[in-house]
Amino acid sequence: MNPNIDTKLSYNQYRELVSELVENKSTTGNDASEALVNYTMLNDRRMKRWDKTVKISEEDQARIKSFKGNVTWVVLTESWCGDAAHVVPVLNKIAELNDGIELQLVFRDENEELMNQYLTNGAKSIPKLIMTDNVTQKVVDTYGPRPSEATKLVNDFKAKHGTLSAEFKEDLQRWYNQDKGKTVIKDVLQLLRV
């Protein structure tokens, strides 16, 4: 784990920052293009919706609460990332259910050394969750950038077409909306081994 992370944000701090960025027509990261500013605005709306609508079943809540670990989830993200806008609010809902899980958000572009340790197929794909045991200080697992079912959809499309089209990206957003965070919850339960 990289101990030199300068800025670690709680989920609430992250949400406040994203809202401020929207007000200032800005974004996080090294690229402040108009497109990424617009994605930040869109993602702020997405996260507000997920904060209100993500539901975790009583059975899954019980499983999450049964986790006996003492871990920190460092999540590499950026405000413009569409996948992060769907995944991070769900991770927060899960972390809120267990005092043994501390969620910290850090920015990919500010933490290049850390990001480079956790590439996905050679790419700086986010969000990327790095789960560290707080007792041993060892990384015990990682998760991301997408839920398992979304990853399969992306990989299948790339295998057939080589690159993701604008239409596919819209389809992926519809998939997230229909899934309602259920696959993230299922995947994280496996990560926690509960």
Automatic annotation (TrEMBL):
Query: Which UniProt keywords are listed?
Result: Isomerase
SUPFAM superfamilies, per the entry: Thioredoxin-like
Q: Name one Pfam family in it.
A: Thioredoxin_9
Name the InterPro entries on file.
Thioredoxin-like_sf
A single GO molecular function term of this UniProt record: isomerase activity
Please indicate if the UniProt record lists Magnesium as a keyword.
no
Which Gene3D superfamilies does the record match to this protein? Glutaredoxin
Q: What is this protein called?
A: Thiol-disulfide isomerase/thioredoxin
Source organism of this protein record: Meridianimaribacter flavus
Tell me the classification of the organism that encodes this protein. Bacteria, Pseudomonadati, Bacteroidota, Flavobacteriia, Flavobacteriales
